[in-house]
Design a protein that fits this description.
The structure holds two protein chains of two kinds. Chain A contains 15 helices and four strands. Chain A is mostly helical. In chain A, helix 3 packs antiparallel against helix 11, helix 3 packs across helix 12 and helix 3 packs across helix 13. Chain B has a seven-stranded mixed β-sheet with strand order 7-6-8-9-10-11-12, sandwiched between helices. Classes of the chains: A mainly alpha, B alpha/beta.
Chain lengths: 355, 418
């Protein structure tokens, strides 16, 4: 994932598919593990951990959406709604049956997978923009249903308070506890996705993306794999919804409206379609950039403008800068941040002996 | 590739540059009391946010220019969240890090999302005009303060107003309730149904699906088929303007329409074509309307002394005054907290108690005479009704609340449910 040897030296398929192509890759992952599991949570203020938690949640959702959009080539504008399916499933189970969080998490994911599979049925006949509109319909129908069926939404306010997750005697409420709780699932999601995409299923997804008729001819069951892609992707979305619910302590339908679906699409497009690392980069970029821009404005804005003007300018400039930066990045590298990262890496691959 | 490298370096330097000036500011030690303000100046509700938030800063600047609260300056940290939830969570944690003792939460999904955290961290958060009516229950939601009439209280007050307009008896009258089809819009229905049974009027609800720009059919239905004796409207954003236009189009008299608080601002009237068009329209308010309050004069004085023009937002007196109200109640709560703690080291808990001591604080009529207690965080559910008349808002009723027993019953039921 991070390092590369200085040439193509592989002689077996096993070597080509290995997660750790070089020993140094293993060390890097170990170092990252130490950094994220030990150094960051113990050295940073809770505020930074809360920001990290938002990034973790976004990463899981972006990974799921990337399986569908990036790897299988099927567009979905319904992921916000799939998240709400997971969130409300978990919230209802937690409040009605008092079931523990692992059960709710799994049930939320599976329910979202089921609904996602159903919403994905049009993908068997239609593609591209048409499919986008079909999933948009799914988003709106799910939103409407949750909004109006009080059995699901738990009352006209459409919000259900959920008790904090417990781990043995510990209640996971602080940002630091949540950090570990969410990071665990991020690791599971990353490892799961990396293994999924190099398995038979993942290769089938890629074949469908590249040319679905050709894929069908070489014996891939399009029906099965397209729906599977929707189901797996929605499972991730459902889990994201459940984690979000536990993170906030409440399921509320207004947290999963169409804007959220668009945000996640933006993450994977900026990060890089069809790559695990790209999903991570995209999620981090979209979550962190507005915050960084605000800090920059607070620090340097006073140099150019009066303080009251800065207050008015920060939000407007943040939006503008955010838009401009996205455009700049996409012009620099249309394949996303992941490609940018690979370019940097391949530059250093033979550095300082570049020819 | 060289460009890539340059960009990477530039980004790294930039990030390092940004992070370094942000040393954790320990504001309390400087004697400043920190208030966190969430705002939406760029998102879905920016019409409201661009006026309310500067108003809050203006009031706090006024307090500071007069020597602060009990000798302490107030520092308001505003963070814009675009009406999205994740930035609101981030902004809350930032406020907490900066040592905020109270937080003005902005937005309904945001107050829901922060409810658990506010309670765990024991920081009071206000949500005037946002969130659920059940949060008025100070026992179940100890750190949530609606501090303004909730949608339930607004609905009961509206029915009471209609009753007076229709001659004191609602038996066999027809009341139409036209609402934005979201949780906030549907919230008052259960209370209205209760009152329909109690007062014997016929209630019919008309949902307006988001984004609320199309309601010709509903207006026609109300005017021609249902033939409502009075309309209670509960719409948001651009929808109130559309409703005024549509009622006008189908020939329904606007003096038989009363709007709850989010369809009651100058912006809504202007959007419908101006005050001349909307003549007769009744609007409910949880803060005083108009520019003629002593506190507003002081703010204008303050600007004049600095040699500046008063902000343009002051012309939009409905939203501006609401911003002043929110800021004033925070300042008042902090004043109460500082009075109770002579050493001046106040925490969120002290400010919570400060909020619960707010009693008859009116700011020259701009703020209703609220009485916030440890059980009632709404403060009595007081509203005023204003009418569009001769190109401006004219006050029709003074502060009042109605059917508070019905509201209390629903709050109790909501508490028992979970």
């Amino acid at each position: 994932m991070i390092h590369r040897e200085c040439g193509v030296l592989k002689t077996t398929y096993e070597a080509d598919m290995a997660l750790y192509p070089l020993p140094i890759a293993r060390y890097t992952v170990a170092a990252l593990g130490v950094l994220f599991f030990l150094v960051i949570p113990f050295s940073l203020h809770e505020y930074y951990l809360s920001v990290a938690n938002l990034v973790w949640i976004a990463i899981i959702g972006a990974l799921g959406l990337n399986i569908l959009v990036g790897y299988t080539g099927q567009v979905s504008i319904g992921h916000g709604a799939f998240m709400s399916v997971g969130a409300y499933t978990a919230a209802n189970l937690a409040t009605r049956l008092d079931s523990p969080w692992p059960v709710n998490l799994l049930a939320g994911g599976l329910m979202a997978a089921l609904i996602g599979g159903v919403v994905g049925i049009p993908s068997l006949r239609i593609k591209g923009l048409y499919l986008a509109i079909a999933t948009l319909a799914g988003q709106l129908i799910i939103e409407w249903t949750i909004n109006h069926v009080t059995f699901i939404s738990g009352g006209v306010q459409a919000s259900i308070a959920v008790p904090r997750p417990r781990l043995g005697p510990y209640v996971l409420a602080s940002q630091r506890a949540m950090y570990y709780f969410l990071l665990f699932f991020v690791v599971v999601a990353i490892v799961g996705t990396m293994n999924l995409v190099r398995s038979r299923i993942g290769r089938a997804f890629v074949a469908i993306r590249d040319q679905d008729i050709a894929a069908e001819i070489i014996g891939i069951n399009i029906f099965r794999y397209k729906l599977l892609a929707f189901a797996i992707s929605s499972f991730y979305a459902g889990v994201t919804g459940v984690l979000y619910t536990y993170f906030l302590g409440i399921a509320n339908y207004e947290q999963f409206q169409i804007g959220v679906s668009i945000d996640y699409l933006a993450m994977i497009i900026i990060g890089g379609l069809g790559s695990v690392l790209g999903s991570i980069f995209g999620a981090a970029f979209v979550t962190l950039l507005p915050i960084l821009i605000r800090y920059a404005m607070e620090a340097f804005g006073g140099v150019f403008f009066a303080q009251a003007t800065v207050l008015n300018l920060i939000p407007a400039l943040r939006l503008t800068l955010f838009g401009v930066l996205i455009v700049v990045f996409l012009i620099l590298e249309p394949e996303g941040l992941n490609r940018l990262w690979r370019n940097i890496r391949s530059y250093f691959r033979v550095w300082p002996f570049a020819y | 590739m060289r460009t890539c490298l340059t960009i990477l370096m530039a980004v790294l330097v930039g990030v390092a540059g940004m992070l370094s000036p942000v040393a954790p500011a320990n504001a309390q030690s400087k004697g400043e009391v920190v208030i966190g303000i969430q705002c939406d100046r760029t998102g879905a509700t920016q019409i409201v946010g661009t006026v309310i938030c500067p108003a809050m800063h203006d009031y706090i600047a006024l307090v500071n220019s007069k020597g602060g609260v009990e000798g302490r300056q107030i520092k308001a940290i505003e963070i814009d969240h675009e009406y999205k939830v994740p930035p609101a969570v981030e902004s809350y944690e930032r406020h907490k890090k900066e040592g905020a003792v109270s937080i003005a939460v902005y937005g309904t999904p945001q107050i829901y999302a922060l409810q658990a955290k506010l309670t765990e961290d024991r920081i009071p958060g206000t949500s005037p005009g946002f969130g659920s009516a059940a949060a008025a229950d100070g026992i179940r939601h100890p750190y949530i303060f609606p501090i303004a009439a909730t949608y339930w209280s607004q609905a009961t007050a509206a029915v009471d107003f209609v009753k007076k307009q229709l001659g004191g008896n609602l038996r066999n009258k027809k009341i139409a309730y036209i609402f934005f089809d979201n949780p906030a819009g549907r919230e008052p229905i259960e209370v209205l149904e209760d009152l329909a049974a109690k007062e014997g009027f016929q209630l019919k609800t008309f949902a307006v699906p988001p984004p609320g720009v199309e309601m010709g059919a509903q207006a026609l239905d109300i005017a021609q088929r249902f033939r409502a004796d009075f309309v209670i409207a509960h719409l948001f954003g651009g929808a109130p303007s559309v409703s005024i236009k549509e009622f006008k189009r189908v020939g329904y008299p606007l003096k038989k329409v009363v709007s709850l608080v989010w369809g009651a601002a100058e912006a809504n009237i202007d959007g419908a074509g101006g005050f001349a068009v909307a003549d007769g329209y009744y609007a409910m308010q949880f803060a005083g309307v108009g520019t003629d309050y002593p506190v507003l004069n002081e703010i204008r004085e303050m600007y004049k002394k600095q040699g500046k023009e008063p902000p343009k937002g002051m012309a939009s007196s409905v939203f501006y005054n609401r911003g002043v109200l929110i800021a004033a109640l925070h300042v008042e709560a902090i004043r109460n907290a500082l009075k109770a703690k002579p050493d001046g080291k106040i925490t969120g808990d002290d400010v919570k108690k400060g909020f619960e001591k707010i009693n008859n604080f009116t700011l020259g009529g701009l703020v209703p005479p609220l009485k916030v207690t440890s059980t009632d965080h709404e403060g009595g559910g007081l509203v005023q009704i204003w009418q569009v008349k001769d190109g401006k808002f004219v006050k029709v009723t003074d502060w009042y609340a109605a059917y508070q027993d019905v509201v209390a019953k629903h709050i109790k039921e909501a508490g028992a449910k979970k």
